[in-house]
Amino acid sequence: MSRFLPLLLIASLVGACGSVRPSAQNQPGAASDAYTEGKRYFDAGDFPASEEALRKAVGANPSHVQAHALLGSLYARTERSEEAIQELEGVVNLDPANVQAYVELARLYQSKGMFEQALAAALEVERLSPGGERLYKLLGSVYLDKGDYDAAIRSYERALEIKPDSAWVYNNLGVAYLSAG
User: Alpha carbon of 76 to those of 59, 109, 145, 158, 176: distances in Å?
Assistant: First the structure.
């Protein structure tokens, strides 16, 4: 009987586990298909269907950066900022060079009055992708909301050096000058 004990143990384990098949997680094909479906729904404005598909994508592959990023954008667009922040923080943990995630995080933090976090995210954008007009508009906006008018003015002036015909920047530069006194 002792010779058969290992075989009985293996048989009982296989029986307890059911059939041997890949786990629900780490199925790249399933994650990719679900992401593609989620993106299609997102682009069509069907956010509930998009969320369902994107959740399937991250369930199939928890490291699917694009699915997490789009889920974060979906949450931001549907005014679920806490969930958006959580997803996007996960994105930058998975992909520390994801500039778009930092941009969205900066805007979300800013909208919640979390100016130090917004500034940190915006400065990470500057580190990863220096010199763009979008960066200086973002920095100027964060500095303006934070009450650092001189830094806002410097940022908006840098944005105008890159794109001198931006009415939005001129408007906010004027607000910064007026606020600075």
Answer: 20, 11, 19, 28, 27
**55, containing H or E segment:** helix 47-60
- pLDDT, one tens digit per residue, over 34-64 is 999 999 999 999 999 999 999 999 999 999 9
Residue 63 near residue 90 (C-beta atoms within 8 A):
no
d(CA 28, CA 84): 23
**Which pLDDT band holds residue 131 (cuts at 50, 70, 90)?**
confident
d(CA 125, CA 120): 9
Rounded-to-integer distance, Cα 71 and Cα 65, Å: 10
Q: Which residues contact 3 (CB under 8 A, 6 or more apart)?
A: none
How much is the pLDDT for 77?
95
Q: Model pTM?
A: 0.80
DSSP 115-129: HHHHHHHHHHHHHHS
Picking from 58, 105, 113, the residue whose alpha carbon sits closest to that of residue 83 is: 105
Would you call 36 exposed, middle or buried from its count of C-beta atoms within 10 A (0-12, 13-18, 19+)?
middle
